[in-house]
């Protein structure tokens, strides 16, 4: 339903922007705006459900077949109902990402074609944060995907933790021309982010169950984006 509303809103924006819609097919600079669901995988997917968020980008065409893109995206993920949080009787958290990517866009048909399949990929910087908003438990908690590991005063478990990490993305999509200089696109990408190692800040008491004894915060994301390019 959110995807349907998004498509309808963006179609209205295009209809109210005749100057954009009448742009020439051979223009060198394109703006894209889109959004959609983001699917998780691996250990990250064991902790957080699928997310949602918008993406905005600017692409400069070096030639009809190759472009350079800068893109920003924001994504929000809620905790899964069956997420591991040993030692707690009540727990809630969320995960957000701010993504800055620098991509190459390889058009498999010239920019401005009626149908434009393309490949896209490049490095990026990702600010990832995990916010624990509710915690009732022993204060012993260790899980890299909550960004905590150790024995804490209960009130210090709450809060937001994270930082900037390096990553990269690879994927592809298809653009469908809907007006001179404008297109609707559908795109799927794989993002891999390399995060820090989380280690115990103090010895964990023996015999107290925890999700882990620390580890990597690497994560994989699969955003499916529906949007417009003009």
Can you give keywords for this protein?
60% strand, 230 residues, eight-stranded antiparallel β-barrel, two-stranded antiparallel ribbon, 4 helices, mainly beta, Porin
Show the helix and strand layout.
Elements lengths: L1 H14 L2 H4 L7 E13 H6 L3 E13 L2 E13 L9 E20 L7 E23 L2 E4 L4 E4 L2 H4 L1 E21 L2 E13 L2 E2 L16 E2 L2 E11 L1
Antiparallel strand pairs: 1-2, 1-12, 2-3, 3-4, 4-5, 5-8, 6-7, 8-9, 9-12, 10-11
Describe the protein.
This protein has a single domain, classed as Porin. 12% of the residues lie in helices and 60% in strands. The protein has four helices and twelve strands, in the order ααβαββββββαβββββ. It has an eight-stranded antiparallel β-barrel. The longest helix has 14 residues, at 2-15. It is elongated and about 65 Å long. Residues 6-24 have low confidence and may be disordered.
């Amino acid at each position: 339903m959110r995807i349907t509303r998004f498509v309808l809103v963006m179609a209205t924006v295009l209809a109210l922007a005749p100057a954009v819609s009448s742009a020439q097919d051979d223009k060198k600079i394109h703006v894209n705006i889109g959004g959609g669901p983001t699917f998780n995988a691996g250990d990250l997917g064991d902790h957080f459900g699928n997310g949602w968020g918008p993406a905005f980008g600017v692409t400069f065409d070096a030639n009809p077949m190759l472009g350079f893109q800068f893109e920003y995206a924001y994504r929000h993920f809620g905790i899964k109902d069956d997420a591991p949080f040993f030692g707690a009787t009540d727990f809630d958290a969320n995960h957000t990402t701010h993504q800055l990517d620098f991509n190459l866009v390889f058009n498999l048909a010239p920019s401005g074609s009626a149908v434009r399949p393309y490949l896209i990929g490049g490095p990026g910087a990702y600010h990832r944060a995990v916010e624990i908003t509710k915690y009732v438990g022993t204060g012993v908690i260790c899980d890299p995907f909550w960004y905590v590991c150790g024995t804490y005063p209960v009130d210090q478990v709450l809060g937001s933790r994270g930082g900037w990490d390096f990553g990269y993305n690879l994927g592809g999509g298809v653009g469908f021309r809907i007006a001179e200089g404008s297109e609707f696109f559908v795109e799927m990408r794989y993002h891999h982010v390399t995060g820090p190692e989380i280690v115990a800040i103090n010895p964990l008491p023996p015999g107290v169950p925890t999700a882990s004894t620390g580890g990597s915060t690497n994560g994989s994301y699969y955003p499916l984006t529906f949007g417009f390019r003009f």
